[in-house]
Amino acid sequence: MKRSDRLIGMTNYVLEHPLQLISLPFLAEKYQAAKSSISEDLTIMNKMLQQEGIGYLESVAGAAGGVKYVPQYSKENSDQFINQLCDRLEDPNRLLPGGYLFMSDILGEPDTIRQIGRLFASEFASLGIEAVVTVATKGIPLAYAVASFLNVPVVIVRRDPKITEGSTVSINYVSGSSRKIQTMVLTKRSLKQGARVCIIDDFMKAGGTIDGMKSLLKEFDAQVAGIGVLAEAEDEEDERVVNDYTSLVKISNVDVRNQQIEVHKGNLFK
Amino acid sequence: MKRSDRLIGMTNYVLEHPLQLISLPFLAEKYQAAKSSISEDLTIMNKMLQQEGIGYLESVAGAAGGVKYVPQYSKENSDQFINQLCDRLEDPNRLLPGGYLFMSDILGEPDTIRQIGRLFASEFASLGIEAVVTVATKGIPLAYAVASFLNVPVVIVRRDPKITEGSTVSINYVSGSSRKIQTMVLTKRSLKQGARVCIIDDFMKAGGTIDGMKSLLKEFDAQVAGIGVLAEAEDEEDERVVNDYTSLVKISNVDVRNQQIEVHKGNLFK
Lengths: 270, 270
Prior knowledge:
The structure is a homodimer of 270-residue chains. Chain A is an alpha/beta fold and 270 residues long. Chain A has 2 domains: 3-71, Orthogonal Bundle (Arc Repressor Mutant, subunit A); 75-269, 3-Layer(aba) Sandwich (Rossmann fold), CATH 3.40.50.2020. Chain A is built from 8 helices and 13 strands. The first copy, chain A, has helices spanning 3-16, 24-30, 35-52, 75-89, 104-107, 110-124, 139-150, 208-218; strands at 22-23, 55-60, 66-71, 95-96, 100-101, 131-135, 154-157, 168-174, 181-187, 196-204, 223-233, 246-255, 260-265. In chain A, strands 7-6-10-11-12-13 form a 6-stranded mixed sheet, sandwiched between helices. A 3-stranded antiparallel sheet of chain A has the order 1-3-2. In chain A, helix 6 (110-124) crosses helix 7. Chain A is globular and about 65 Å long. At the A-B interface, helix 1, helix 3, strand 5, helix 6 and helix 7 of A face helix 1, helix 3, strand 5, helix 6 and helix 7 of B.
């Protein structure tokens, strides 16, 4: 196969298998070329992925060696994306009764979701995550986007048990802001004991839901290696029950009466 | 920029913007090359995408012309994927009380979800779809996967109104198999009037839920151009209230007592 053909096929293959070791012999056979040629291709690809600001290839030496695509969004790409997102969220038309923010349109855009996933994955790529955990419903697309870049499965915690799920583990927790007692369930066979996970959710006020997820994950002996939230409500900072998290945007000074709201970059950008 | 560098960057760009017209001048500027060179690159790319069985480039002539990446999974890739999926689903350990099938592990794999999305998108790419509609919770990842290949937003119908959503339209419908009356809501500002949509869901028994979604979408004057379900229960065929749909797999002869189940290719493969 010619180099130009190979590069197209390999770019697609490598980008679709992030954080997975791809051996040189495998690529040499798949794209019908000598290992030395494949090696040159990968050098070119590594340089170009960095130039495009979407990651790099990590070389793994030895007989079982090869390359691993590490998704890493460049500072330039990240800044550009997050500035646009903040601008869009600051639109006063998004304010809903109770100080909530309408975000469903933005969360409905696959391209935006993918970029959010890429940002969190860049942050969590080195943590050895084995599964992404989220709670139904709004966190689901974000969790899949992160998981697709980390190449691990998604596990969904529910607020109600479902007949199509089999036996479950459930806990009660106190919602941080409303102080109500709520329930959360996770199907037993959906997560193996002792897994290393990250938690992804769309919105965090006091953090009661995420704290509840941590308690539930303890029942599975899971280690929570990272917590990522798209938006945090800065006004609830004093009551916060979760401290160690990564946020993409901070929402503050929500003023429903005067239709005002401020949206800044989250702590990922510090 | 050298051809080899360009091809890597352009492959990534083109695959991330399916069904979107990408103009030659835009690519020429982005990748610093003459339009004639870009044109040659695209010819190579078109050939290679087809060889890899993941789609093709459609040329749009004229001053406002360019290319459009059409995701089209080859018959070979589709067959290989669906045969594996059927084998995995036929595992009797998946049987749950009531004849339900445990699928959450498979639905938790981003790579599997992506391939399912690619299959439906291949089927629906020519229908001019403007949004993918699904119902919470299990259909959500599938809907995003389809939407990412069709490059359109996802709209999520809920079973309960949520405070963070604003005003909604709701309907009551009769669940096909259980004959219970249920409710479904859709936020008013989540879908523009008269949109052309496809419906995506994970599982269809008699089809009451999908029929309910069709009624709800009528309130938005939406045109349902396609319906895609991952799995259909063949045993419920007689009671079916939805006829025009595309399924990936058919589940039949579910025998909980003897722990048996049959899973075959769905009507997409006819």
